[in-house]
């Protein structure tokens, strides 16, 4: 990978930032627990990826509870059960999209997640 001694965004920075979204919990933790945390681009996307992963996890828990309750309604429960696969694919598609944007070298804002993380002074 190309290294940029001027402190700019390198190919390795882009790759690690993209992997932070694809391999949700492992890569961001590796970035934050190694010297890579000193690379601003990698750190930004690692923290943002962790926040997004946490938000998706909480949303999945709430969604599972709602679907479980709706399963007791005969026809509606069956229809919702069949449609849930599409709902679960939405976060996967978002992660791939954000990984692509990170690999392009962009700093971007994830609605709600980035704002919350900036309020907490994590970004």
- Distance from N terminus to C terminus (CA atoms, Å) equals 26 Å
Rg over CA atoms, rounded to whole Å, is 18 Å
Order of helices and strands: HHHHH
Q: Give start-end ranges of low-pLDDT stretches.
A: 1-6
Instruction: Please state the structural category.
Output: mainly alpha
The chain-level mean pLDDT equals 88
Strand content: under 5%
Summarize the structure.
Helices cover 72% and strands 0% of the residues. It contains five helices and no strands. It has helices at residues 11-22, 26-33, 40-70, 74-103, 113-119.
Summarize the SSE layout with pairings.
Elements: H1 11-22, H2 26-33, H3 40-70, H4 74-103, H5 113-119
Overview of this structure, please?
The two termini are 26 Å apart. The chain is mainly alpha-helical and 123 residues long. Helix 1 (11-22) runs parallel beside helix 3, helix 1 packs antiparallel against helix 4 (74-103) and helix 2 runs antiparallel to helix 3 (40-70). The protein contains five helices and no strands.
Tags for this entry?
123 residues; mainly alpha; 72% helix
